[in-house]
Fold this protein.
Amino acid sequence: MGSSDQHAAPIERRQAFYSGHVQGVGFRETTRRLAAGFVITGFVRNLADGRVEMVAEGTPAELSRFMAAIAERMEGRIRQVAVDARPGTGEFDDFQIRH
């Protein structure tokens, strides 16, 4: 019922594949900058097939807010997003662009 409840929240991993006009438009940099405003870790990278992959870990609520911010900022660029949610692993220290 206080801030300690937030720390006890389970960590979730979301892997999202964005398609549309998502490469060459600053999608990765925008996502990295947005991530700085959220308590999340993970990475974003371009895929050879023209999609962008984003893997992020955090509380479900924080991840939902982060993904909503991406959708809002990149509106008109994203045609489709496929998301897979699983338990988090805690393997990331920060959020970065991978090449």
Notes: Residues 3-97 form a domain with the Alpha-Beta Plaits fold (CATH 3.30.70.100). The beta strands are 12-20, 41-46, 52-58, 78-87, 95-97. Helices lie at 3-8, 27-35, 60-73. The two ends are 41 Å apart (CA to CA).
